[in-house]
Amino acid sequence: MSDGFLHESLRRVDWGVATADTLAAPLPPLPERGGHFRQWTEDLRRLTGVVADTHRMVAGWPQLQPDGPGDWDRHALDRCDRALDALLAQGTRPCVTLLDRSLPPWLDAAGGWLARDTAEHFAAFAAELGRRFGDRVERWITSTDLAGPTLADHVAGMYPPSRGAGRAGLPAVHHILLANGLATQALRATGARGRIGTTVTLVGGYPATDDPYDRLALERLESWTNRLFLDPLLLGEHMVTEEDVSPVEATGCVHPGDLETIATEQDLLGLSWHTPFRVTAPENLPRVLPTRTCQSALNEVNRLLVGLGFAIVPFDDVETTAYGWPIIPEGLADAVAELYELYGEVLPPLSVVDNGMGDLDLVDDSGHSDDDRRRALLRARLSWLAGLTAAGVDVCGYEYWSVLDNLEAKFRYTRLYTMAVPDHEAPPRPPIPSDWLRRGAFAGAAVPEEGRARGLSLVPSPRRTRGAGAS
Fold first, then answer.
1. Which residues contact 292 (CB under 8 A, 6 or more apart)?
2. Phi, psi at residue 354, to the nearest 5°?
3. 163: exposed, middle or buried (C-beta count within 10 Å: 0-12, 13-18, 19+)?
4. Consecutive H or E run containing 94
5. Which end of the chain, C or N, has fewer beta carbons within 10 A?
6. pLDDT confidence of residue 435
7. Are 68 and 106 a contacting pair, CB within 8 Å?
C-alpha cells in the first residue's frame, strides 16, 4: 500500500467524539505501517544525524502464558529466542516490554488488575523472562502504560465501557504499581543486565484563563493523572487530595509493605506523551465555551471530569492535527519541566516515548507528504526538549512514533482528549523556529550549535496560560 493511498484511506475516517455509539462500533481495518516507519526514521536521521540502534518489542504475556501460571507456550518462547539472537547478530540492541495493556485471558477472567494476585503472577512472569533472556536484553520496560489497563479501564470504563467502576476501580492502580515493583525486584534477582523501568502517561497543559481557579483545576488534573501513579512510585505514598484523603488507600487495598515495594528504585522512567490540555474550572466553562458548545455532546467527557474539579476545553486559535490534537511544540517540554519542579532529584532518568508528528493533513501543493513542515515541527519539539537537558533535566532517550501507533485508541478517543476542534475555520499556521537545537543535547547528534530554547525555566513560577489568542 502506498503512502498516498494510506493517507487518503485514513482521511476518510471519522475522528469524532467518543460516545457510547462510537465505542461500540467496529474498528476500521488497520493499514500497513512499513512506509511510515521508514519515513519517520529518516526524519530523525535528517534532523539529528542519529540512526537508531535499538529495537523495542513486546514479549506478549497472553501469547507466552495462554492457559495459566506455569503453562508456557514453548514455540512462542523459541520465537523470542530467535528474534533476540537475530537482532544481536545485526548489531541492534533489544529492548523488551513485558506488558502492553492485555492480560492473559485466565487472569482477565479472574478480575484482571482488580485482583491482587495479578501482581504476583506478573512478577513470576518477569522472573522467568529474566532468567531466559536477561543476558541479551538492553532495556526492560515492565509496562507500556500504567494508566490504560487500570485508570482508563477499571475506573473510567474506556475499554470496554462496561467495566468502569469509578473510585471502586482504584485498587487496579495500586495493584499494577505493586506489580511493577515486584517485577523490578524479580528481574534484578535473576541477574538480568539491562536497565529496568516502566512507563507512565505524562499529562500536562495550560490553564484556560488567568483565573486562579483555572490554575487550581490544572493541578487537579495533574493530581488525578501524573501524581496518582508517580507519588507512590517515586515518593512511596499514595496521592492525597485537597481534602487530605488518599482515594486509593480509602478502598482498603493497601497492605503493609506495599508502598516500600512500589517505590523500588527504577533505572529509568518512560514518559508517554500525547497532547497538551487546556483546562478550566467547571464554573468557568460558560466563560471559555460558546453556550451551544458548552451544552453539546462534545462535552460528554466533562460530565465525568467536573466531579473531580476540572474540565477540558479546546484551545483557541491553535492549529490542530487531522484528528484534533493541538500543535503546540513546546507542550512536551513544558510538561516535563512541571514534572521536574514537582519531583526534582527523585526522578530517575527520563525516556520520552512520543507520538511524533504524524499529521495526515501535512501535504504539499502536489498532494504528497510535506516532509519539510513535519520535520520543522519535530525540530521545534526537540529544541524545547534540548533546553531542558541543557538546564540539567536527565532525558536519556526519545522515541519517535508515527500516527499509526496506538491507532485503535486514536480511532475511538481522539476528540475526547481535546474536546473537538474549534468551530471556526483553521487559523493561520505560525512559523516554526528551526535553529534552536544545541550541539550535545542528544548523544551523538550532529546538529548545529545555536541559541538555547527560550521560555524554559526550572524554578517554580506562575503557570503559563494558553487562553484566547494563544498560538
1. none
2. -115, 150
3. middle
4. strand 93-99
5. N
6. 38
7. yes
The Cα angle at residue 231 between residues 230 and 236, in degrees rounded to 5: 115
SS3 call for 350: strand
pLDDT digits (tens, 9 = 90+) for 189-241: 999 999 999 999 999 999 999 999 999 999 999 999 999 999 999 999 999 99
| DSSP-assigned letters across all residues of 389-410 | HHTT--EEEEEE--TTTTHHHH
Kindly provide the b/e burial profile for residues 102-129, where b requires at least 16 CB atoms within 10 angstroms of the residue's own CB.
ebbeebeeebbbbbbebbebbbebbbbb
Q: Are strands 195-202 and 93-99 parallel, antiparallel or unpaired?
A: unpaired
Please give the model's pTM, rounded to 2 decimal places.
0.83
Q: What secondary structure letter does DSSP report for 369?
A: B
Q: Write out the three cell numbers for 164.
A: 468502569
The crossing angle, in degrees rounded to 10, of helices 34-48 and 3-11 is 110
Cell of 359: 499529521
Q: What is the pLDDT of residue 38?
A: 60
User: Which amino acid, residue 448?
Assistant: P
| Beta pairing class for 268-273 and 54-58 | unpaired
Q: Is residue 251 packed enough to be buried (19+ CB in 10 Å), middle (13-18) or exposed (0-12)?
A: middle
Closest Cα partner for 239 from 68, 249, 456, 25? 249
pLDDT tens, residue by residue, 319-375? 877 667 788 889 999 999 999 999 999 999 999 986 666 565 565 556 566 778 778
Three-state SS letters, 125-169: HHHHHHHHHCCCCCEEEEECCCCHHHHHHHHCCCCCHHHCCHHHH
Dihedrals phi, psi of 305, to nearest 5 degrees: -75, -30
